[in-house]
Amino acid sequence: MALERTPDMEGLSASERAAIYKQRAAAAGIGQPPSGAQVAARPAAPAAASAPPPAAARPTAPAAAPVSAAVAERPAGAGVPAKVAAAATARREQVAAVARREPAPSAAEQSERLVYVWPHLVTIEFMAGVLLLLSIVVVSIILQSPLEAHANPDKTPNPSKAPWYFLNLQELLLHMHPSLAGVLIPAGVVFLAIPLIPYFDRSTLDVGKWFGTAKAVPICIFTSVYSTIILIALVLFDEKVGVKPMMQAIASATGVAFFADTNPLGIGALSMPNVIVPMILMNVPIVVLLILVKVIYKPSGARDYMFALFTGFVVAYVVLTIVGSFFRGEQMILMWPWDPRQARLD
């Protein structure tokens, strides 16, 4: 049938399908008033038994039937039940109405809707790669970075820092147990928390758009400021007070050795100073952030919460990297970047 949906329509929008239906309907003569030849060739409907027979000399003038009548009077094919034919006729009328209501998009609108891999995406990626390469060349010319001597296994530099992209993890190692900071937290974020985002944010509205909700920008700005303040406060707290000294003081004041035990009952995961307290200090600000976002911005869906959580993750990565790069000197002690102790001792 001319107006049935065909496989080549898969992936098209409603307006594009309507344009195709309109073209097919025009080619099949659906929705058009019948011509004189069609009316003359159409078999006359049987008259009712009670009606008088028409006079032989009476002329038969073709009346201008409406579009719906022209569609409805089209005879059904042989062997097609009346209900099926009526349903097909109703469907054709609906398609014709949609075709009349939704005009076909212009060439300019069609070009704006479609973005092809070539040349649109490939050209942008190529230019981005060229600009990145030129930027690296210019930076390498301006900032001299000579290679150092071979590493001496008998003498460790002070401070000994990881590459910049791992300094955030090295900063975490200063504040909690190595297993927690180096394995569990990175693995939990990369392999559990981030992959679960699509299962919480099930909406397909504005997928792929930066800040795809009306409240995304203010939520991200608030989360960035909040996360920066909290992270700096936690770094200063651990530097000036420290979790282990605080738990040792609590254990001495209460007489409960469990508060300061790093391996209670032979289970390191139950350690208050190494695991439990650092996890509390890390997760409580996240819960508070979600509560503040809910109270202040009243998000309309899960995506706003995902914006807040992911923004907090990115800010934590950046802040911890900056702290580890510029604010750690000898013995990885917290200090200002211009402190003379920032010079590495070989």
Q: In angstroms, what separates the terminal alpha carbons?
A: 84 Å
Assess the beta-strand content as a share of residues.
under 5%
Question: What is the CA-atom radius of gyration, in angstroms?
Answer: 37 Å
What composes the largest sheet?
Answer: none
Regions with little confidence, pLDDT below 50 for 5+ residues: 45-51, 55-74
Helix proportion of residues, in percent?
55-70%
- Which structural class best describes the helix and strand composition? mainly alpha
The SSE string, one letter per element, is HHHHHHHHHHHHH
Estimate the global geometry from the Cα principal axes.
elongated
- The count of DSSP E runs of length 2 or more, i.e. the number of strands, is 0
Averaged pLDDT: 80
Indicate the multimeric state.
Answer: single chain
What tags apply to this protein structure?
3 domains; 13 helices; about 350 residues; mainly alpha
Task: Offer a concise description of the structure.
Helix content is 56%, strand content 0%. The protein is an all-alpha fold. The longest helix is centred in the middle third of the chain and has 26 residues, at 117-142.
What features would you describe in this structure?
By secondary structure, the chain is mainly α. The protein has 3 domains: 1-34 and 65-105, no CATH class; 114-142; 161-342, no CATH class. It is 56% helix and 0% strand. It contains 13 helices and no strands. It has helices at 14-28, 36-41, 67-72, 82-101, 107-113, 117-142, 167-173, 178-193, 197-200, 216-240, 243-254, 272-297, 302-326. Helix 7 (167-173) crosses helix 13 (302-326). The chain is elongated and about 90 Å long.
